[in-house]
What does this fold into?
Amino acid sequence: MTTTPPESRKHDITTSLSEIRQKVSAATAARGSGSGSGSGKGVTLVAVSKTKPASDLMCAYEAGQRHFGENIQELVDKAAELPTDINWHFIGSLQSNKCKTLCTIRNLYAVETIDSAKKADLINKAWDDEDGKKPLRVFVQINTSGEESKSGVQPDDALPLAKHIAEKCPKLRLQGLMTIGSPERDSDPGAENPDFTLLAKVKTTLDTAHNTDLDLSMGMSDDFEQAIRQGSTNVRVGSSIFGARSYPAKA
Ligand SMILES: *Cc1c(COP(=O)(O)O)cnc(C)c1O
It folds into this structure.
Protein backbone atom coordinates (compact mmCIF):
# COMPACT_ATOMS: atom_id res chain seq x y z
CA MET A 1 0.00 0.00 0.00
CA THR A 2 1.23 3.48 -0.80
CA THR A 3 1.43 5.31 2.48
CA THR A 4 0.63 8.98 2.61
CA PRO A 5 3.80 11.04 2.95
CA PRO A 6 4.03 13.91 5.42
CA GLU A 7 3.01 17.26 3.96
CA SER A 8 6.59 18.56 4.26
CA ARG A 9 7.88 15.77 2.00
CA LYS A 10 5.18 16.52 -0.51
CA HIS A 11 6.07 20.18 -0.42
CA ASP A 12 9.80 19.49 -0.94
CA ILE A 13 9.29 17.17 -3.91
CA THR A 14 6.72 19.43 -5.56
CA THR A 15 9.02 22.44 -5.17
CA SER A 16 12.11 20.65 -6.52
CA LEU A 17 10.18 19.18 -9.42
CA SER A 18 8.84 22.57 -10.34
CA GLU A 19 12.36 24.08 -10.24
CA ILE A 20 13.74 21.33 -12.46
CA ARG A 21 10.87 21.77 -14.92
CA GLN A 22 11.61 25.47 -15.14
CA LYS A 23 15.29 24.79 -15.80
CA VAL A 24 14.42 22.21 -18.45
CA SER A 25 12.08 24.69 -20.17
CA ALA A 26 14.61 27.50 -20.02
CA ALA A 27 17.42 25.36 -21.44
CA THR A 28 15.12 24.03 -24.16
CA ALA A 29 14.02 27.55 -25.11
CA ALA A 30 17.62 28.77 -25.07
CA ARG A 31 18.76 26.29 -27.68
CA GLY A 32 16.14 27.80 -29.95
CA SER A 33 14.65 26.46 -33.10
CA GLY A 34 17.78 26.60 -35.25
CA SER A 35 19.10 23.63 -37.14
CA GLY A 36 21.13 22.20 -34.26
CA SER A 37 20.73 18.80 -32.72
CA GLY A 38 17.48 18.43 -30.79
CA SER A 39 16.12 21.75 -31.98
CA GLY A 40 12.41 21.78 -32.50
CA LYS A 41 11.86 18.76 -30.27
CA GLY A 42 10.65 18.97 -26.72
CA VAL A 43 12.52 17.44 -23.81
CA THR A 44 11.05 14.62 -21.72
CA LEU A 45 11.87 14.87 -18.04
CA VAL A 46 12.26 11.39 -16.58
CA ALA A 47 12.09 11.47 -12.78
CA VAL A 48 14.60 8.90 -11.56
CA SER A 49 13.04 7.48 -8.43
CA LYS A 50 15.27 4.48 -7.68
CA THR A 51 15.73 3.81 -3.93
CA LYS A 52 12.82 6.16 -3.14
CA PRO A 53 9.54 4.93 -1.64
CA ALA A 54 6.39 4.70 -3.73
CA SER A 55 4.91 7.52 -1.65
CA ASP A 56 7.62 9.86 -3.03
CA LEU A 57 6.68 8.91 -6.57
CA MET A 58 3.05 9.67 -5.76
CA CYS A 59 4.02 13.19 -4.69
CA ALA A 60 5.58 13.77 -8.10
CA TYR A 61 2.68 12.00 -9.80
CA GLU A 62 0.19 14.31 -8.13
CA ALA A 63 2.23 17.23 -9.44
CA GLY A 64 1.66 15.87 -12.95
CA GLN A 65 4.84 13.83 -13.43
CA ARG A 66 4.25 10.75 -15.60
CA HIS A 67 7.71 9.59 -16.75
CA PHE A 68 9.69 7.72 -14.12
CA GLY A 69 13.02 5.88 -14.36
CA GLU A 70 13.88 2.79 -12.31
CA ASN A 71 16.09 -0.27 -12.02
CA ILE A 72 14.67 -3.75 -12.36
CA GLN A 73 13.37 -4.98 -9.01
CA GLU A 74 12.02 -1.66 -7.87
CA LEU A 75 10.39 -1.17 -11.25
CA VAL A 76 8.56 -4.48 -10.94
CA ASP A 77 7.41 -3.71 -7.40
CA LYS A 78 6.45 -0.09 -7.98
CA ALA A 79 4.67 -0.75 -11.29
CA ALA A 80 2.41 -3.21 -9.49
CA GLU A 81 1.50 -0.66 -6.86
CA LEU A 82 1.32 2.68 -8.68
CA PRO A 83 -1.11 4.12 -11.27
CA THR A 84 -1.08 2.42 -14.64
CA ASP A 85 -0.80 5.64 -16.62
CA ILE A 86 2.80 6.05 -15.48
CA ASN A 87 5.32 5.76 -18.30
CA TRP A 88 8.14 3.62 -16.92
CA HIS A 89 11.67 3.93 -18.26
CA PHE A 90 14.03 1.10 -17.47
CA ILE A 91 17.43 2.72 -16.93
CA GLY A 92 19.37 0.06 -15.03
CA SER A 93 21.98 -2.27 -16.38
CA LEU A 94 20.11 -4.90 -18.35
CA GLN A 95 20.75 -8.53 -17.53
CA SER A 96 19.69 -11.21 -19.99
CA ASN A 97 17.85 -13.19 -17.34
CA LYS A 98 15.73 -10.14 -16.48
CA CYS A 99 14.49 -9.32 -19.99
CA LYS A 100 11.40 -11.48 -19.61
CA THR A 101 10.46 -10.02 -16.23
CA LEU A 102 10.84 -6.52 -17.59
CA CYS A 103 8.41 -7.28 -20.39
CA THR A 104 5.67 -8.29 -17.96
CA ILE A 105 5.26 -4.60 -17.07
CA ARG A 106 2.46 -3.50 -19.34
CA ASN A 107 3.06 0.22 -18.95
CA LEU A 108 6.76 -0.07 -19.64
CA TYR A 109 7.42 2.93 -21.88
CA ALA A 110 11.03 2.47 -22.87
CA VAL A 111 14.09 0.34 -22.23
CA GLU A 112 16.94 2.83 -22.28
CA THR A 113 19.84 0.47 -21.85
CA ILE A 114 19.99 -1.97 -24.77
CA ASP A 115 23.63 -2.91 -25.25
CA SER A 116 23.63 -6.08 -27.33
CA ALA A 117 21.78 -7.79 -30.17
CA LYS A 118 21.21 -10.74 -27.86
CA LYS A 119 19.30 -8.64 -25.33
CA ALA A 120 17.35 -6.91 -28.10
CA ASP A 121 16.31 -10.36 -29.32
CA LEU A 122 15.29 -11.49 -25.82
CA ILE A 123 13.14 -8.41 -25.30
CA ASN A 124 11.68 -8.66 -28.77
CA LYS A 125 10.69 -12.22 -28.02
CA ALA A 126 9.22 -11.47 -24.60
CA TRP A 127 7.29 -8.30 -25.48
CA ASP A 128 3.63 -9.07 -26.06
CA ASP A 129 2.39 -6.68 -28.72
CA GLU A 130 -1.02 -8.22 -29.08
CA ASP A 131 -4.23 -6.38 -28.13
CA GLY A 132 -3.07 -3.42 -30.18
CA LYS A 133 -0.01 -2.80 -28.01
CA LYS A 134 2.55 -0.65 -29.74
CA PRO A 135 6.12 -1.71 -30.30
CA LEU A 136 8.30 -1.16 -27.26
CA ARG A 137 10.61 1.86 -27.45
CA VAL A 138 14.25 1.07 -26.95
CA PHE A 139 17.38 3.17 -26.66
CA VAL A 140 20.82 1.84 -27.50
CA GLN A 141 23.20 2.68 -24.68
CA ILE A 142 26.58 3.88 -25.85
CA ASN A 143 29.77 3.95 -23.87
CA THR A 144 30.89 7.41 -24.92
CA SER A 145 33.71 7.77 -22.41
CA GLY A 146 35.55 4.56 -23.21
CA GLU A 147 35.76 3.70 -19.49
CA GLU A 148 35.87 -0.04 -18.92
CA SER A 149 33.46 0.21 -16.01
CA LYS A 150 30.70 1.80 -18.06
CA SER A 151 28.11 -0.27 -19.87
CA GLY A 152 27.00 0.34 -23.40
CA VAL A 153 28.28 -0.47 -26.86
CA GLN A 154 31.26 1.22 -28.40
CA PRO A 155 30.24 4.12 -30.68
CA ASP A 156 31.25 2.15 -33.79
CA ASP A 157 28.96 -0.72 -32.82
CA ALA A 158 25.84 1.46 -32.64
CA LEU A 159 25.10 1.31 -36.34
CA PRO A 160 25.12 -2.49 -36.66
CA LEU A 161 23.01 -2.83 -33.50
CA ALA A 162 20.50 -0.26 -34.77
CA LYS A 163 20.31 -2.16 -38.05
CA HIS A 164 19.74 -5.40 -36.18
CA ILE A 165 16.87 -3.86 -34.20
CA ALA A 166 15.29 -2.38 -37.32
CA GLU A 167 15.52 -5.59 -39.32
CA LYS A 168 15.23 -8.39 -36.79
CA CYS A 169 13.14 -7.01 -33.94
CA PRO A 170 9.67 -6.10 -35.25
CA LYS A 171 8.26 -5.64 -31.74
CA LEU A 172 10.85 -2.99 -30.89
CA ARG A 173 11.15 0.55 -32.11
CA LEU A 174 14.52 2.22 -31.91
CA GLN A 175 13.67 5.46 -30.17
CA GLY A 176 17.09 6.84 -29.50
CA LEU A 177 20.55 6.67 -28.02
CA MET A 178 21.51 6.92 -24.38
CA THR A 179 24.69 7.67 -22.48
CA ILE A 180 25.80 8.32 -18.94
CA GLY A 181 28.29 11.18 -19.08
CA SER A 182 31.36 11.05 -16.89
CA PRO A 183 30.94 13.52 -14.03
CA GLU A 184 34.59 14.55 -14.17
CA ARG A 185 34.10 15.60 -17.75
CA ASP A 186 31.75 18.45 -16.94
CA SER A 187 33.88 20.14 -14.33
CA ASP A 188 33.93 23.28 -16.45
CA PRO A 189 30.37 24.61 -16.43
CA GLY A 190 29.15 25.75 -19.81
CA ALA A 191 31.86 23.86 -21.67
CA GLU A 192 30.80 21.17 -24.11
CA ASN A 193 30.74 17.72 -22.58
CA PRO A 194 32.65 15.36 -24.91
CA ASP A 195 30.32 12.46 -24.04
CA PHE A 196 27.32 14.44 -25.24
CA THR A 197 29.17 15.66 -28.33
CA LEU A 198 30.00 12.08 -29.22
CA LEU A 199 26.45 10.82 -28.66
CA ALA A 200 25.08 13.59 -30.92
CA LYS A 201 27.62 12.60 -33.55
CA VAL A 202 26.55 8.94 -33.44
CA LYS A 203 22.95 10.12 -33.80
CA THR A 204 23.85 12.01 -36.97
CA THR A 205 25.46 8.89 -38.43
CA LEU A 206 22.43 6.71 -37.64
CA ASP A 207 19.88 9.31 -38.73
CA THR A 208 21.66 9.67 -42.05
CA ALA A 209 21.85 5.92 -42.56
CA HIS A 210 18.24 5.16 -41.62
CA ASN A 211 16.46 8.45 -42.31
CA THR A 212 15.42 8.77 -38.65
CA ASP A 213 15.38 11.51 -36.04
CA LEU A 214 16.47 9.61 -32.97
CA ASP A 215 16.09 10.91 -29.44
CA LEU A 216 19.10 11.57 -27.26
CA SER A 217 18.82 10.42 -23.65
CA MET A 218 21.60 12.28 -21.88
CA GLY A 219 21.87 14.49 -18.82
CA MET A 220 21.32 13.79 -15.11
CA SER A 221 21.04 16.04 -12.04
CA ASP A 222 24.47 17.61 -12.44
CA ASP A 223 24.54 18.13 -16.17
CA PHE A 224 21.03 18.09 -17.68
CA GLU A 225 21.08 21.75 -18.71
CA GLN A 226 24.35 21.28 -20.56
CA ALA A 227 22.98 18.10 -22.13
CA ILE A 228 19.91 19.98 -23.38
CA ARG A 229 22.13 22.67 -24.88
CA GLN A 230 23.89 19.85 -26.72
CA GLY A 231 20.68 18.35 -28.09
CA SER A 232 19.27 16.08 -25.39
CA THR A 233 15.58 15.24 -25.78
CA ASN A 234 15.32 12.99 -22.70
CA VAL A 235 16.90 13.91 -19.36
CA ARG A 236 17.02 11.55 -16.38
CA VAL A 237 16.98 13.50 -13.15
CA GLY A 238 16.94 11.83 -9.74
CA SER A 239 18.62 13.41 -6.73
CA SER A 240 17.72 16.98 -7.69
CA ILE A 241 14.06 16.05 -7.45
CA PHE A 242 13.94 13.46 -4.67
CA GLY A 243 17.08 14.31 -2.70
CA ALA A 244 20.28 12.31 -2.29
CA ARG A 245 19.91 8.56 -2.36
CA SER A 246 20.77 7.19 1.07
CA TYR A 247 21.62 3.67 -0.02
CA PRO A 248 22.98 2.38 -3.31
CA ALA A 249 20.42 1.38 -5.93
CA LYS A 250 20.11 -2.31 -6.58
CA ALA A 251 21.05 -3.09 -10.14
C1 LIG B 1 20.63 7.06 -11.09
C2 LIG B 1 20.62 7.41 -12.52
C3 LIG B 1 20.24 8.70 -12.95
C4 LIG B 1 19.88 9.84 -12.01
O1 LIG B 1 21.03 10.37 -11.42
P1 LIG B 1 20.98 11.72 -10.55
O2 LIG B 1 22.38 12.17 -10.53
O3 LIG B 1 20.44 11.36 -9.22
O4 LIG B 1 20.09 12.67 -11.26
C5 LIG B 1 20.18 8.93 -14.31
N1 LIG B 1 20.48 7.95 -15.21
C6 LIG B 1 20.85 6.73 -14.83
C7 LIG B 1 21.17 5.72 -15.86
C8 LIG B 1 20.94 6.41 -13.48
O5 LIG B 1 21.32 5.18 -13.12
User: Anything to note?
Assistant: The CA atoms of residues 2 and 54 lie 6 Å apart. The pocket of pyridoxal-5'-phosphate is lined by residues 48, 50, 91, 180, 220-221, 236-240 (CB under 6 Å).
